[in-house]
Amino acid sequence: MTYTINSKNNLSVVASGNIKHDSESSLVIPLAQNNSQIYNLIYSYTAGSLTISPALQFTHVPRDPGVELLYSAWTYSVALATKFVFNTNWSITGRVEYIDTTGGINIA
Known about the structure:
Layout: E1 2-6, E2 9-17, H1 31-34, E3 37-47, E4 50-61, E5 73-85, E6 91-103
Antiparallel strand pairs: 1-2, 2-3, 3-4, 4-5, 5-6
């Protein structure tokens, strides 16, 4: 869901997750990610050719021994993404992020 504050400022709230317990696991989607929830809060500011987007992210993998997730685990992150457009053919982007984890060994 995105709220447009004005022509230069947006605030987005994003949430996603599996609503059931799933024992499926693959190279593409590991077991912990297949049973997790993710939440994002993203602000975006645009001024001319420059866009700045700080973001907060939280993920949670609940304990579920039924699908071999023996411990709960969480991640927390903060990020800053930027983009500068030189012209219709050229732009440059950058991103820095800090992430931390707590909880069990599900996501190690």
